Amino acid sequence: MNDSTNRRKVPPLRIGDLVIDPPILQAPMAGFTNAAFRHIVREFGGAGLLATEMVNARGFVWLDENEAEHPDRLWGVADEPRPLAVQIWDNDPETMAKVGRRLAEEYRVSVVDINFGCPVRQVTEKAHSGSYLLREPNRMHAIISRLVEVCAPTPVTAKIRLGCNRDNINCNEIAHVVEEAGAAALTVHGRTAADMFRGNADWDRISEIKSHLRNIPLIGNGDLDSAEKVVAAFEQYDVDAVMIARACLGRPWLFAQAAAALRGDPVPPEPTLAEQRDVMLKHYGLVVDRFGEEKGTVLMRKYACCYAQGKHGARYFRTHVAKVSTPEEFHSVVEEYFPLRDPKEEVESATAS
């Protein structure tokens, strides 16, 4: 991992005039990648481009027309460091254009990303958006080209899946549509919509798409949960950048580890369990500062479960933290149940003695 002499140099990612270095992106994830999470990721470093949660364009327009506060998913966007991408979704070109123009002109975001990959039923079957639109290339073209027109010079990008299901994989065709419509980059999650998050991401399929693009970069996404896998993605597949998603939710330091590996530097070790607990508590403080003690505590439940994932005793912690509703309860559960002892270390210690 530390020998950079045999590794091909990975150049920065270019999205229009924007240079992303390192070419490691944080995925937009609904319910998770808010300003508090992005703050924690920035403190560790390593993410070349961060992204908000996906924003419902139609909901944004309604709030705007009714002079209500803009969506919580845009919390922090106006003031936080750049580069920053905001992802939006809907199926109407004009609705998307209204929001895209506001994001580019008022919020001055670095990238406006379009979600054509969400597989959740509420977005697909009920709203005919997200990955549903993979079956309507002409509408995708209309949405992208309209956003490119109103957002310029802010680059517009698109995120897709391989197709709606395994019998209808059309990512190569869609790649043509995305580029011809004027998008500045394409991100591909290596599963179909029907797969949801089951099975393994198909990086061979992702890599094949590169030959169907003329000038815009290809960003690969799916199952990147270690620095080693990030390096392997660049070495084994024809991609210009990678995007890390679910694996970073409880490990916001993963980007720094991956960036070090790409440089050929020593990979920072995992923080100790006590340090991980402290990161979680800092995260909790940021959420409470924004949403208040009651709402912030409830919102933090899912983040806390992510921080404990994969650790010895995580199930007991999840069971208890899922019920907390006050700061006192949260801190009490963390104190009593957050995993602070690694059973492997205990075994090693006992063997050594």
From TrEMBL:
Keywords: Flavoprotein, FMN, NADP, Oxidoreductase, RNA-binding, tRNA processing, tRNA-binding. The keyword NADP applies. It comes from the Bacteria. It catalyses: a 5,6-dihydrouridine in tRNA + NAD(+) = a uridine in tRNA + NADH + H(+); a 5,6-dihydrouridine in tRNA + NADP(+) = a uridine in tRNA + NADPH + H(+). SUPFAM superfamilies: FMN-linked oxidoreductases. Its EC number is 1.3.1.-. GO terms for molecular function: oxidoreductase activity. The keyword Flavoprotein applies. InterPro entries: Aldolase_TIM, DUS-like_FMN-bd, DUS_fam, DusB-like, tRNA-dHydroUridine_Synthase_C, tRNA_hU_synthase_CS. Its cofactor is FMN. It is an enzyme of class 1 (oxidoreductase). Residues 26-335 form the DUS-like FMN-binding domain. Pfam families: Dus. NCBIfam families: nifR3_yhdG. PANTHER family: TRNA-DIHYDROURIDINE(47) SYNTHASE [NAD(P)(+)]-LIKE. Catalyzes the synthesis of 5,6-dihydrouridine (D), a modified base found in the D-loop of most tRNAs, via the reduction of the C5-C6 double bond in target uridines. Belongs to the dus family. This is tRNA-dihydrouridine synthase. It comes from Rhodopirellula halodulae.
